[in-house]
Amino acid sequence: MVRPKHNRIVSKSPIISGFRPYGRCCSKGECVQMKYDEYEVIRLIDHDGKMQAEAAEQMNISRPTLTRIYACARKKLAIALVEGKRIVITNDNLDFKTYQQQKTNIQVMNQKIAIPTCEGKLWQHFGKAPEVTFVTVENGEVKESVVMQAPEHEHGAMPRFIAAQGATDVLCGGLGQGAVNMLNQLGIQVHGGAPTIAVEEVLSQYLGGTIVYGDSSCHHHCDHHHE
């Protein structure tokens, strides 16, 4: 009998998306990917000073599971520090098959999610969306949804607009690498490749951990001007 999969609770998205090494680096193009649950364990134990039992209870996992996650996270930090590799903190673009294989469903409890939309549906091209829907999530539940007119399509206008509204995450379809970089620099996590469906449905899939991400690259539809 398959054991039920429990959500691993992360209180909120990280305020940054990673770190870069400074100085001469022997592993210039490589990076260490740290998942949200690994980040959360480091935050709770090493930053907040919680005991492992308390941290495990807060994350809705067993003490042995927390110990394994903690060891993996510390190993990644050591590799990045000693070998001069970048750290990327990410929880996006994991399709449902990957979630099933990992038997891991990470639930971020407190977020403000920006979704480029048009007439109640996710709009596929980030920089060209006529509207942005801002969804406030508290304790894993949707508390408020506000639709705002998007800014004029100028370079960098959309990321700055989203950051000004206090968003922590962007859930979108396709977007250019320039937009991704700018959002990350503003401390906003990007979840690209989401399907073009109703806002309520894409949110339900995202919060439930069942969303299947597609290609998040913008290709020829979004040129540099619209990033």
Q: Explain this structure to me?
A:
- The protein is of the alpha/beta class.
- The model is unreliable at 93-97, 99-103 and 220-227 (pLDDT under 50).
- The protein folds into two domains: 7-91, no CATH class; 108-226, Dinitrogenase iron-molybdenum cofactor biosynthesis domain (Nucleotidyltransferase, domain 5, 2-Layer Sandwich).
- It is built from seven helices and ten strands.
- 33% of the residues lie in helices and 25% in strands.
Q: Mind sketching the topology for me?
A:
Layout: E1 7-12, E2 18-19, E3 31-35, H1 36-47, H2 52-59, H3 63-83, E4 86-90, H4 96-102, E5 105-118, E6 121-122, E7 131-138, E8 141-149, H5 157-164, E9 169-171, H6 177-185, E10 189-191, H7 199-208
Parallel strand pairs: 1-5, 3-4, 5-9, 9-10
Antiparallel strand pairs: 2-4, 5-6, 5-7, 7-8
Helix pairs in contact: 1-2, 1-3, 2-3
